[in-house]
Write a structure and sequence with these properties.
Keywords: Membrane, Transmembrane, Transmembrane helix
Distance between the termini: 89 Å
Strand order of the largest sheet: 3-2-1-4-5-7-6-13-8
Order of helices and strands: HHHHHHEHEHHEHEHEHEEHEEEEEEH
Number of helices: 14
Strand content: 5-15%
Helix content: 25-40%
Pfam family, one: Methyltransf_24
Radius of gyration: 28 Å
Oligomer: single chain
Largest sheet: 9 strands, mixed
CATH class of the largest domain: Alpha Beta
CATH superfamily of the largest domain: Vaccinia Virus protein VP39
Bound molecules: 2-acetamido-2-deoxy-beta-D-glucopyranose
Shape: elongated
Structural class: alpha/beta
Number of domains: 2
Length: 389
């Protein structure tokens, strides 16, 4: 419209167009300057914003976070690091013993197993099948857990063995088989009475099935388990082991809530109470139907309280095996890779691109991927049996 107006004026007054042109030019220049200024301000703000840890320092006192009523506490967004959802339960480093490097209270060293050798043999040669499959079945992960536990014990790493989310206790059994006489056993689940708190309807823990499972390999829930927590893992304090008087974890399976927030919470509980070299096994990692688990893991790895690192070294049958110590990550990775018994089933390379092999990597480290499709049930029993100690 204005262009036509100007055109008209050109005809009537020859002096005006030049002035108009100059004005237009200076307007454009001013607009350009304003834009540049805005851009500078935005860039500056991005660089100047305080890092996450500084923001966390102004968190509310402990009670505000830990008194959980089942409802998200919805703290003000300024209290949480940027981009972490509001309802996440966030441990400050000073609430998380492992983040403060305070965990040196290993369980006493002893190579004598908690469950008698003959009972273990019976369990691994098929006894485990008496326990109902509460969640997924397993094959290769069971012998891998035995092998890894032996590696830990040879390194002098002794501690509590536990599981968050035991379901019917079949995998719990595979974990407990590895415990030494000095190591405590713990378990946590909503169990059937509290299923209304099962917000994401993942799993259905059953106390009776769990108890019977324990008895099938000779453990008594009352006398042999240090602690069975019935309830949501959001009720647990971040320094759980101090409060409940057990040594920090050596081996802990995380298979409770499957939302990103609950996974984040459970990884905090596991890692905050883990000795260096502890192995955390996260179930349903990269599961198509439970994306929250994967989301929660990576959010924990990048924004959780553990500053010395989160190192996955193995993915197998839907589970991620993760440790908290870089040197031991390397050790576990190397030892598994060079173990002839697992050679057929573990792969370090994801694929080949134009002649060069590409390694499996995540969160900055290499990991192994198992494939157990070709592993027969009978072979698995023999493999597992050969690793009992
Ligand atoms: C487990 O131990 C408790 C306490 O000693 C006992 O009362 C109970 O009968 C035991 N259970 C079994 C199945 O042996």
């Amino acid at each position: 419209m204005s262009v036509f107006m100007v055109d008209k004026e050109i005809v009537t007054c020859p002096e005006r167009p030049r002035a108009m042109f100059k004005m237009g030019l200076s307007m454009a220049f001013l607009l350009f300057c304003a834009n540049m200024l805005l851009l500078l301000v935005l860039i500056q703000r991005d660089f100047m914003s305080p890092p996450a840890r500084v923001a966390m320092a102004v968190d509310p006192p402990l009670e505000d976070i830990t008194t959980n009523t089942g409802q998200p506490t919805a703290p003000e967004s300024s209290r949480l690091p940027r981009r972490l959802p509001r309802d996440f339960r966030m441990a400050r480093p000073e609430e998380c013993p492992a983040a403060m490097h305070k965990l040196t209270n290993y369980a006493p060293a002893s190579m004598k197993s908690k469950i008698p050798y003959s009972r273990q043999k019976k369990f691994v040669l098929g006894g485990y099948q008496q326990i109902d499959k509460g969640s997924g079945d397993y094959k290769l992960v069971a012998p891998l857990v035995a092998k890894l536990s032996k590696l830990q014990h040879e390194q002098g790493i002794f501690g509590t063995v536990g599981e968050l989310g035991v379901h019917h206790g079949r995998f719990t059994g595979a974990l407990y088989m590895t415990a030494r006489e000095t190591e405590k056993l713990i378990a946590a689940d909503l169990f059937e009475d509290l299923q209304y708190q099962n917000v994401d309807v993942s799993g259905y823990g059953n106390r009776q099935a769990f108890r019977q499972g324990l008895e099938s390999y000779g453990l008594n829930e009352t006398t042999d388990l240090h602690l069975v927590h019935t309830g949501t893992t959001e009720d647990l304090p971040f320094d759980w082991h101090v409060q409940s008087d057990f040594e920090p974890f050596r081996l802990i399976s995380v298979d409770a809530g499957h939302t990103a927030g609950l996974t984040f919470n459970d990884l905090e509980i596991a890692f905050c109470n883990s000795v260096p070299g502890s192995i955390v096994i996260l179930d349903d990692f990269f599961h198509n139907l439970w994306p929250g688990v994967t989301e929660g893991f990576f959010q924990f790895a990048s924004m959780g309280p553990i500053d010395n690192g989160v190192y996955p070294f193995l993915r197998c049958e839907g589970k991620a095996f993760v440790t908290n110590d870089k040197a031991l990550h390397k050790h576990y990775y190397k030892m598994l890779r060079s173990e002839p018994k697992f050679k057929l089933f573990l792969n370090a390379y994801a694929h080949q691109v134009r002649g060069s092999k590409v390694k499996y990597m995540m969160n900055g480290v290499e990991y192994l991927k198992c494939s157990s499709d070709k592993l027969k049930r009978d072979t698995m029993h023999l493999l597992w049996n050969s690793l009992v100690y």
